[in-house]
Amino acid sequence: MKTDYKLEYKSEEKAFITSIGPIGSGCDVEIPNDEDIVYINTFNYCRNLKSVELPNNITRIDNEAFEKCESLKNIKLPSSIKYIGTEAFFDCKSLKEIYLPDSVEELGARTFFYCTSLEKIKLPNNLRTIKYEMFYECKNLREIIIPKSVTTIGARTFAGCKSLKKIVLPKSIENINDFPFMDCYNLKEIRIESECRISDCLFSDCFDLEKIYITKKSYDLSPSFIEDCKKECVDIEIIKEKTLDELLDEGKSFREANKLLKNNNIVIR
Questions:
Q1: Which of 102, 122, 132, 229 fits as disulfide partner to 155, beta carbons 3.0 to 4.6 Å?
Q2: What's the chain look like in SS3?
Q3: How confident is the model at residue 156 (pLDDT cuts 50, 70, 90)?
Q4: What percent of the chain has pLDDT over 90?
C-alpha cells in the first residue's frame, strides 16, 4: 500500500516529516532521497508500520520518532545518521534486531525502552554515553556489545533484561550509575575491565550471577559490595585477573607472563 507523507519546511534548506498516512495493514515506507529532508520526527503510533528505509541524507531521528510502532520489524538506518533521540523506538514490540551505524554519536535516554523482542545489538563505535533506561525491560535481549568509546553507563540501563547472560564493561568506562543491571535474573557472568568505582547496587536482584571478573584497580571492593553479592548470589566467585603489566612487574618474562595469563587468577570467597 502506498503511504503519503507530509513535509513541514523549517527553512529553505531543512524540512521535517511531520506525519504519514494513511497507515494500512502491512504498510512499508520508503522515504525519497530528497536532499532537503534532514530530520525525521513523527512516525509515532503508526501501529501497522512494518518496515522503514531511510535515505542517505538523513542525519537525525528526533525524540519519540517511532514510539509505539508496535509492528515495526525492520528499519534501515543510513550511515549519515548522527543522532537518535529520546524514546525514539519506545515500545517497538516487534523489533528484533537493529544495525546502528558508527556515524551515530548520541543515543537519547530510553531509546529502546520496552522493545521486548529485541535480541541483539551492537552499539556504534563513536558512542560515549549509554543513557538511563536505554534498554529497560528488553526482556529478550541476549547479546550486547559495548564499544571501547563508552565512558558512562546510565541508571537502570539494562534493568529487566532477563535474557542477558553475560556482559563486558570495557576499560574506557569511567562512571556507572545506580542499578544498571537491576532484575537481570539470568545474568551469570560479568567482566569489568574498567577501573571505575564499583557501586554497592551494581548487581541488585541478579540472583543467578556466578562470576565477576575484575582488574587491578577495580579490585578495591567495599566490604558491603562483597556482602551484598554473597547475600543475593550464594555461589558467586569474584575473580581478580592479573594483567600482563602486573606479571612483568613480578619479574616474569614476556613468554611466562603470556602463559600465566590464562590461568593465574585470585578468587575472593
A1: 132
A2: CCCEEEEEECCCCCEEEEEEECCCCCEEEECCCCCCEEEECCCCCCCCEEEEECCCCCCEECCCCCCCCCCCCEEECCCCCCEECCCCCCCCCCCCECCCCCCCCEECCCCCCCCCCCCEEECCCCCCEECCCCCCCCCCCCEEECCCCCCEECCCCCCCCCCCCEEEECCCCCEECCCCCCCCCCCCEEEECCCCCCCCCCCCCCCCCCEEEECCHHHCCCHHHHHHHHHHCCCCEEEEECCHHHHHHCCCCHHHHHHHHCCCEEEEC
A3: very high
A4: 38
Q: Give the pTM.
A: 0.77
For the beta sheet containing 60-61, the strands, ordered from the edge strand earlier in sequence to the opposite edge, are 4-9, 15-21, 37-40, 60-61, 83-84, 106-107
What residue ranges define each of the domains in the chain, with the CATH number in brackets? Answer: 1-118 (3.80.10.10)
Residue 49 confidence (pLDDT) above 60: yes
